[in-house]
Amino acid sequence: MKIVDYKNVELLRQEHIVLKNVTISIEEGQFNYIIGKVGSGKSSLLKSMYAEIPVENGEARVLDYDLTTIRRRDIPMLRRKIGIVFQDFQLLTDRSVHDNLQFVLKATGWTDKESIEERICQVLKQAGMENKSYKMPHELSGGEQQRIVIARALLNTPQLILADEPTGNLDPATAEQIVSYLHEIAASGTAVIMATHNLSFVQQFPGRLMRCENKHIILEN
Ligand SMILES: Nc1ncnc2c1ncn2[C@@H]1O[C@H](COP(=O)(O)OP(=O)(O)OP(=O)(O)O)[C@@H](O)[C@H]1O
Questions:
Q1: Which domain holds residue 130?
Q2: Is residue 19 part of a domain?
Q3: Of all atoms in ligand 1, which is nearest to the CA of residue 47?
Q4: What is the pLDDT of residues 57-66, one digit of tens each?
Q5: Which superkingdom heads the taxonomic lineage of this protein's source (predicted)?
Q6: Of these four, 36, 113, 114, 149, which has the most CB atoms within 10 Å of its CB?
Q7: Dihedral of alpha carbons 71, 185, 43, 102, sign
Q8: What is the pTM of this model?
Q9: How far does the centroid of ligand 1 lie from the alpha carbon of residue 53, in Å?
Q10: What is the 40 CA–ligand 1 centroid distance (Å)?
């Protein structure tokens, strides 16, 4: 199954065309970069995939959803199947790492206490953060917080991770660790699409390169 399948998609922001003729397809476990200048449409493309902005023209599918006809009430279900990671870490600051993760599981329908604890343990282990469970977000470095955010995005075993400048607030070494972690996630079968300004990752962590330029998406490899 294709994870993302766009054909001749057009995206608007306040009646202005941001991207047109977008034809891309993304497979299971594929690692994808979106690059391009400030304002070129990288975030808009990602936002269209989680139905934050509408798809105006063309055909657009993400997982089992047709984005041209999706009903408002189905959008939360779509988002539950996608892991979303932003530049600013967006953990709830008033509770521990454990409680941040527990909050998401409870909000997405998990009720069995034992399963909840087991799942929290699994994602923290995978993120290399198993000993940070009872820390508060402010007690963690930026890189650690971002690892927790990615772990949080993985809680419901999504088939797709959308990461919008996930390393934008991190120093180069920490940023590299985060990209490495996302690359591992893709290798384990979850498709990843990462918008970034940092081209230096591309050599080290190979992936498909999509460039936003002149309102189009150009596939570079
Ligand atoms: N909320 C909004 N309302 C109206 N126009 C917007 C909105 N957000 C972005 N735009 C416009 O849409 C275009 C694409 O913006 P977008 O944020 O997708 O670019 P980007 O490539 O992600 O930029 P950056 O590298 O700065 O994150 C820009 O011209 C921008 O001004």
A1: 29-52+75-219
A2: no
A3: 18
A4: 999 999 989 9
A5: Bacteria
A6: 149
A7: positive
A8: 0.93
A9: 11
A10: 7
